[in-house]
Amino acid sequence: MAGGRGGSGSREVQTSGKGSGPLLESHVSFKVEGDSQPKDGGPITSTSVDWEPPACWYEPYWKAKDFKTFTEAKWSMYESAGGAPEGIADDKDRYKNGHPYKDFNADKNDEGMWWVAVENPENKGDVAAKACDRDPFWVPNGQNPEVPQAIDTETLAGLAHQRTRVPETRISMAPDGRSTVNLPTWVWLDKAAFRTVSVTADLPGTGLWATTTAKPVSLHIDPGTDDAQTFPASGECAINDDGSIGEPYAKGKAERTPPCGVSYLRSSGTDAYALKATLTWEISWKGAGGTGGELPNGTFATTTDVPVREIQSVNR
Fold first, then answer.
1. pTM higher than 0.85 for the full model?
2. Alpha-carbon torsion (266, 272, 277, 278), positive or negative
3. CA dist., res. 244 & res. 60, Å (int)
């Protein structure tokens, strides 16, 4: 019955269900290093099938007097609309009549906060986002609620991971535009082609924050056909000491094997092979109180159409 705020920020009436329910809009804010996201590119995909960012959590939301004002207004609206008293009897007993809270803890307004369930806006419609169904609960300032899914720096790191957008993986190739059967195509990424990306998630007024940093570490080449040989054989091109990947082609290197590239063994005919370049980003995080650690790597892939032709020869 405590209701909440919808995604637009407007207040909505909740006529059934638990306390505030996961309808509230989280106070967590996000900041990208440089205050901008790349124009091209997109969110990274976690390489771990066992890890997902939190779908919902509990966070400190209401001062006691604010919670009282808001909830009593909801009750009044419910009753004015003809709602039966038993529809809000349990809530009145819990928050106002001393079982276990008396008058919303209004006399302790500066001594703590009401914690509520909030839903990750990136997971709307996900069944897991409904798992935080605990009624709003009071937590004194400075105390850990010791409640599963209560927000902490690791939760914030996961949310920042989910909102990390990386630049498009724009590879350079030689020859560019068309390859020839059995002749190596060189693939590389200049150091300036990508950069480290950081996102900070912060819960104002709590001192809780976490910053995730995504750093490119390798490039995987998938030629788009089994009739091809990659260099190296694994197709995994490691990052160089200077931050680049692979090596630019230059005159005089035609007889060399590229450190990163592909050699097609069969013509693509009138079509083209879809070469997929997948950049792997290593994710680390640090947060308030000296916390920190590693999160699952992320990947972002870009596909390039590569027409492959055969050299025609005439026998006389």
1. no
2. negative
3. 44
